[in-house]
């Protein structure tokens, strides 16, 4: 089986922000994964990122939303306002966030994770790359700061 999480996927770029939970209008912390390249594993970007979504334990069909948090992956809140995406006990990607992002993630107990199915164009922030084909999932938050 191809395992895109173990570095075979290539470069992953992770953006994060606080946005609106469309279910009730409340604040929700978001993470969004994209890749800048022309594919990895010898596959087009959409196929490689679909494999990544599947490995994360979320529905990999473009446009799908996984509301039940998968058991394979979660988000860890770490010291100094860092967040990490963890799959099967291994850190896939981590990034600095803000105290507000951390507070929102911990208060809600969930983070919305998006996976883009198109390549991130040069110079475009991940936060501005959310309109194309992607999948979205709610992941459980674990606070490891204590």
UniProtKB/TrEMBL annotation:
This is Immunity protein 21 of polymorphic toxin system.
